[in-house]
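does this look right to u?? iron/sulfur cluster version
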Amino acid sequence: MAGLHALANPLKAMTTNLLDFDLHGLQAFCESLGEKRFRAQQLFRWIHQKGESDFDRMTDLAVGFRHKLKQHALIKGLDKISEHTSADGTIKWLFSVGNGDAIEAVYIPESDRGTLCVSSQAGCAVGCRFCSTGHQGFSRNLTTAEITAQLWMAEHHLRQKLGRSERVISNVVMMGMGEPLQNYSALVPALKTMLDDHGYGLSRRRVTVSTSGVVPMMDRLGEDCPVALAVSLHAPTDALRDVLVPLNVKYPLAELMQASLRYLDHAPRDFITFEYCMLSGVNDQPEHAQLLIDLIARSGVGGQGLSCKLNLIPFNPFPASGLVRSSVEAVGRFAQQLQQAGLVTTVRKTRGDDIDAACGQLAGDVVDRTKLAQRKSSQRVIPVVVSPL
Ligand code: SF4
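got this back:
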């Protein structure tokens, strides 16, 4: 776990950021200071439930313990560069993570929930063709502290702003910048903090990891921390998906669908969500819908089809994508075709697009350290005509 690595280096431990720990990691840290493990629970609640960062204000901790904490630890969020609020109430924060890199988090309020979209990497190496983050290239993985800090800062900032003492953020989606499963070791302690009753106490159904299909890590997530899973599908054939989601070359559709099926054994919901970004003339035609129906039908068990929900996402154009959003009519037709085949299908409402906070628009500000070969692999020509499987 990312946080435990800090303990191995006494110099680093001098300034250990406690946001780097899930409760288990914090217990180990407290023990390394010669304190009882149960002290970690109190400390964890101060940090995550009360949003406190000043050890002196943690009044029910023994003075000696607070003194040790002041010597060896700190609780530090991210440096906020900007905060923009959309006409629909969506809030986008831009945070600096050093060395010229900046990441984004987005809060989406709805009548029955408050969702925070969290980033896992500065940039992304997958390079999906329709994604602004992927277009920027990849700089580095975020640490556990940097992932957790997005929730810690947003939750306590919103509580203060709205004058509320109870929880504001009810759902977390790991759908911001980055491929979360390519930053697995930092991701899992952050997820555990979100789920922990002494942390944010979110149910597994309300925390969603979105992946472009890192098959081995989907299996590990199912074992280690089975939260809800969303799979970025975007194409019904390998020929098209190889181009739209270059990771498909490594983990083709047959493997991805089997991994999705395996995940259902652990999933907190009895379905997987498949995300499908609607691109005019590229993947939004009736034959694509039929190929998608066939793909899902043959991926299930005993001819039942894979238990899933389809989420159609209107593409959010960005400069240099060379792609066009599908018309409302094309999305409607596509959705209807899937529904008539018995697939639960929704069309995602676009939120916050006046502040570039909509899905696929998060670009932050990343120093591209992607290798040239990787960059080239995401620049292939999109085949408009799809051959049958
Ligand atoms: S869609 Fe997700 S996996 Fe693909 S490039 Fe964007 S951030 Fe990366």
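Confidence is low (pLDDT under 50) at residues 1-13, 384-389. idk if thats expected tbh
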